[in-house]
Amino acid sequence: MTRHYNFCAGPAALPAPVLERAREELLDYQGRGLSVMEMSHRSPEFVAIAEQAEADLRELLAIPDNYRVLFLQGGASLQFSMVPMNLLGQGGSANFLYTGIWGKKALAEAERLGFPVHLAGTSEPSGHAEVPRPGQIALSADAAYLHYTANETIGGLEFDYIPEVEAPLVCDMSSSILSGPLDVSRFGLIYAGAQKNIGPAGLTLVIVRDDLLDRARAPIPSLFDYRGLAEAGSMVNTPPTFSWYLAGLVFQWLKHDIGGLAAMDAINARKAAKLYAAIDASDLYSNPIAARSRSRMNVPFVLADARLDTLFLDEADAAGLLNLKGHRSVGGMRASLYNAVPEAGVDALIDFMADFERRHG
Ligand code: PMP
């Protein structure tokens, strides 16, 4: 069996030790004679899995006690509507920073539901090549919160700072959560789809400060209500149990195999730095993002001659470097370097790119 290097933007690579552990436990979870997929979510075994996952996540991110952690469904996209439904019940408008496709979708969804929105800042003038500076962010007087996308997965644009504003900060961290340490206390609410740095698809993480649980616009469906979900331990209905369990294994891997988020941060910094350095040193490859706004997780790049794209992708695939095709809306290439992509994978990609350039550049 060979596991190739997978640069997919999501669902993305999972750590091999996590998959091995899941395989070991697949048919018979810890001597119980059944798999996690076949357990009641209310069984003592699953409740223990769920509680351990939350405890490990809290430890990894040093989540303060006045924050709730929710394990939900619906993807990050459902949070585009759940956030305004839950936070705008007492009036005010949703403020947004627009730095790419995902932030725009979040804004469009709030608008679609009839909520007042305000554009508080954008990277549009730079062609989404540089995040707005703090002085370029201006909230409306009635801002109930400011929403932004920490890392734009398609554009490859990442905030290098946490905005400091009067209103609670709401952040879509789908493609950057757990890539390094984070000061959760700076945020009102953080959400992330699982299928990049957390685990398999089907699970969505929400970390929300207690005082934001009582601002919902009534009535909203009970499955969308943070307060009710928090009180029910994210089990208003059947949660995605197997994804939750696998996320728990990923948290264990981060703690014990990697050594925590500071260690993960150092690895991620090295991985991204060497790939950008290789791109910048080449005549064939280029990345348009300003140095300070470059994403550590998603590295888009184009070839000087787009006629080579298909050959590049075919040869990469044959060399065991998978899923380097850029998002369908922008084309080109994209290498996603999430936590589970090992440094050796980035080294192999850089070697391949140099070799391809020598032969075709
Ligand atoms: N936000 C960001 C930053 C994303 O990268 C994605 C998915 N790629 C989403 C939201 C949407 O996530 P989901 O498919 O889980 O709804």
Automatic annotation (TrEMBL):
Annotated Aminotransferase class V domain residues: 5-349
Pfam families, per the entry: Aminotran_5
Catalyzed reactions per annotation: 4-(phosphooxy)-L-threonine + 2-oxoglutarate = (R)-3-hydroxy-2-oxo-4-phosphooxybutanoate + L-glutamate; O-phospho-L-serine + 2-oxoglutarate = 3-phosphooxypyruvate + L-glutamate
InterPro entries in UniProt: Aminotrans_V_dom, Aminotrans_V_PyrdxlP_BS, Pser_aminoTfrase, PyrdxlP-dep_Trfase, PyrdxlP-dep_Trfase_major, PyrdxlP-dep_Trfase_small
Amino acids binding L-glutamate: 42
Binding residues for pyridoxal 5'-phosphate: 76-77, 102, 153, 172, 195, 237-238
Protein family membership: Belongs to the class-V pyridoxal-phosphate-dependent aminotransferase family. SerC subfamily.
Name assigned to this protein: Phosphoserine aminotransferase
Gene name linked to the record: serC
